[in-house]
Amino acid sequence: MFATGIENSCPTIKGGRTRRDEMDACRHYARWKEDFDRVQELGLWFLRYGPPIHRTWLGAGHYDWSFADTTFGDLAARDIVPIVDLCHFGVPDWIGDFQNPDLPALFAGYAGAFAQRFPWVQLYTPVNEMFVCALFSASYGWWNEQLRSDRGFVTALKHIVKANVLAMRAILGVRPDALFIQSESSEYFHADNPRAIGPAEVLNARRFLSLDLNYGRRVDSEMYEYLLDNGMTREEYHFFLGQRLKHHCIMGNDYYVTNEHRVWEDGRTAAAGEVFGYDELTRQYYERYRLPVMHTETNIAQGPGGDEAVYWLWKEWANVLRLRNNGVPILGFTWYSLTDQVDWDTALRELNGRVNALGLYDLDRKIRPVGQAYRKLIADWREVLPTQSVCLQVPVVRPQRYAEFCATGQRTGAPAGLARTPTEPHNLQGG
Fold this sequence. Notes:
8-stranded parallel beta barrel; alpha/beta
């Protein structure tokens, strides 16, 4: 599944007074039809996309579907398969932030309502990058609640992951064959010296918390104590252990040049650049969870040479092929996002209006060199990959086949074979 995304990040900054709406900053509200044209121009049929949560979800049980009706109706007419991103780093003002204990149940209502309105949608990322959302909001103090504490982080994390789990259950109640692609940041922490090994080990255990809880995996003993010491109760922990949704899931791994970190003995961290790379980090996550994998985000800025992003695309694709050839069932690749972004050079913390040249297209919707390279990569590999080895089939129903699918009574749930552990190489499916 070759894909791109239209980012719907919407965290708040400045004590909740300023909303960072990337759909607005990147002019998607005005140029959405052009954006969908560009998706098709690239030869793509999968798109990470979702409605702007703060404009759509107006209160408990109260929604404004006008923009979603227009855009999702157009996607269906084009037969583009959306991977629906329902919560991307922010919640509506009336909820407050991720410290609100009512968030999980309320969000499940929103997810269920979306699924009922758009029953032809099958692929979802209910909450994007759960670990990063909790980290930036409640540990780094950058977004939303802007806290800097372990207790704040654990509170945000348990609410975010529970929201994701309850949303999956609500969506499955409408669409039993729904599949969930957990787009999550893949991280690694490198010790700078022997005295930093301890702090690095703690951080390398903490990076798995969101997916451990989401997939009902017992956390490491040190992390169990960490969670309980910082506000998670035994009952809350056992809620996560009791979930049985893993077989509906595909593990999405995001990788950027900032995902690896250098750690000092006092716990300070800094970006380390690309040390291990996507291949090694994804292998670590795959060995922990044994789920099919999708590369769900990457990008790098088009620099002064004009070919920096093109080279990064080539390297990421080489990493994907290496994983596939080593037997990891990797199902898709994503350059994120379709267009350039705004103010991600400061992680949306500052309102500078600075355009970051990270997209396949610039904000005038003119293709960048990396867009041309991605279009060629898709054309070159789409037909070759399925012929080279045994493929793990993803049972995706295209929008225009949904009525036929319902008529034949096939909506019986995700196949049990989706989460099997492969014993032979698998590859990406074309398209």
